[in-house]
Amino acid sequence: MIARLVGPTPDLEDLVQTTFVQAMGAFPRFRGEASVATWVTKIAVRVALHQLRRGVRRLLPLDEVPGAIEPRDPAPSADRLVHEHEVAVRLHAALDQIKPKKRVALLLYTVDGYSIDEVAALTGASRAATKSRIWFARNELLSLVGGDAVLRELAGRGQEGT
Length: 162
What we know:
By secondary structure, the chain is mainly alpha-helical. It is 67% helix and 0% strand. It has helices at residues 2-6, 12-26, 36-54, 78-95, 100-110, 116-123, 127-146, 149-160. It is globular and about 50 Å long. It starts with a helix and ends with a helix. The model has no long low-confidence stretch (mean pLDDT 82).
């Protein structure tokens, strides 16, 4: 979850560790109103938001991130791997231009498949604020994609199936 929210960074293991340290420290206050998984996810979202708000991010090249570019074919061509790497780098660069609260809401909703109400609960925002953040983030991302020929072509191919 944290890797998807903050993108490629050498600080990933530290952020995961911070999440679990905070969870262990807060566990005596856990009221059982949600599942432990949901509770830890909310802590992870807060840790990711804090990291993104800091604005000081050390980016790691995607080829050094385990699992960042996992081919689906057992033997993908070199051209395909290069293209997928280029797309991933460009997409992360576009996401880095979106404000943290909007970025996190968009990724939780579109990538992780949480409902608007679940995203609102995880981020501590109202339902209206969450819908607004997702809408604005989606529009910003589409605008950024429109200015990038590689991402625009990829987005165009994705639209053909709908």
